[in-house]
Amino acid sequence: MLKKFTLKNYKNFKDEISIDFENTAGYQFSTDCITDGIISKMLIYGRNATGKTNLGKALMDINKTMFGGRNFYDTGIFLNADSIDKTAIFSYEFCFENNELVYRYARLSNQDLRKEELLIDGKTIFSCDFENNKFYFENLEYINAETANVDRYKQSVDSGDDEEFQVLKLPFLTWLLSNVALSNDSILIKLANYARRMLMITAGNEMLRNPRITNDSFYELLEDSNRLKDLEDFLNEMGIKCKLILEKLPDGQKKLYFRHEKLVPFDETASSGTLALVDLYRRLIPKSWAPSLLYLDEFDAFYHYEMAEKVINFLKKRYPKCQVIMTSHNTNLMTNRLMRPDCLFILSREGTLTALCHATERELREGHNLEKMYISGEFDKYE
Fold it and tell me: Which of 205, 210, 367 is nearest to 299 (CA)?
């Protein structure tokens, strides 16, 4: 699992900011927010423009660093506009069984990797300084990769003085995974499996904006009666009492309906909240793999607070070991009945992330009304 993520000089985060999943406070309630001593369900609050979305993008950066991805060539602003530092720093600390792994790197942009380093149990396995053409590969035998042809790798990233190719540095970790036969229990394979299953879902309604594009492939899945029933059960569990039926039209297209005495077209009549729920289902549930880390940005933007609670409880039940980070403005969710003070965080305008239990001099207990304290200004200092 991911133990700690640290970021510096990325977008609106000029100074170092960390998400410390190990920093728990020992509460004996809402224990389903903790897995193996690590926070697995987290809720982040923050005013508009504090960087909740950017924090999620940064957290997902390891995925596109290791595997590329559709946003790899994003040309948007990358470094903090007020910083004089030349690179953004990303650091990930993992725990896989009895081993601790740290993977950190520095970037000038989405494409331009400047430094990379891997440590296992405190030992530096490799480090690459692409800017100064300095490499350290002395401990590859520690991960059974001593047969790696590092000279071939160095040749592949040596672009000389040609600036056109300076941005095409392939991470050594990515190269290792592709060029060395690693055992299934290798810690690098465990890292790759975790990073590959990291997923970020932003608030919105793709089914409403692009119904034809998104629905065609999704409705193919719903041809499976078990999958259609699962979607129906999901909506009912969320408080949307309904029955669904999928029909094939004369032109071969498929269409989803609410089943009543007369069929009611789903796309045209479902509320924005119902469509948002189905969109969440579409983007998450049918996958053949369970996510390792799920970042849900403004996940409840279209939900009544009771439905938002149901979604959180569903995620706890469906993905007990998945590290789920949700961002929200909904203070109704700021309750010990659902979460707990060491799993509720405030992201400030200054780029600090503080758990509620560390944002007050009071000793927060199960009986405290956290929402009332928040609205009354108890935590204003950390916003």
Answer: 205
- Distance between CA atoms of residues 101 and 277, nearest Å: 36
Cα 48 from Cα 219, distance rounded (Å): 35
Q: What is the mean pLDDT of residues 33-49?
A: 96
The per-residue pLDDT for 136 is 97
For 213-265, give the DSSP string: HHHHHHHHHTTSHHHHHHHHHHHHHTT----EEEEE-TTS-EEEEEESSSEEE
Instruction: Please write the tens of the pLDDT for every residue from 146-195.
Output: 999 999 999 888 765 444 444 468 899 999 999 999 999 999 999 999 99
CA dihedral (87, 92, 93, 96) in degrees, to 10, reads -150
Q: Which residue matches tokens 């590092």? A: 150
Give the sign of the dihedral formed by CA 225, CA 227, CA 230, CA 231: negative
Q: Which of 133, 105, 134 is nearest to 119 (CA)?
A: 105
Nearest to 367 by CA among 342, 341, 331, 330: 341
Single pTM value for the model? 0.93
Question: Which phi-psi region, left, alpha or beta, contains residue 64 (left: φ > 0; alpha: ψ -120 to 50)?
Answer: alpha
Burial pattern 101-134, b for ≥16 Cβ within 10 A else e, equals: bbbbbbbbbbebbbbbbbbbeeeebbbbebbeee
Instruction: Give the H or E element holding residue 189.
Output: helix 187-196
**Cβ-based neighbour number of residue 293 at 10 Å:** 23
Dist. CA 248–CA 44, nearest whole Å: 43
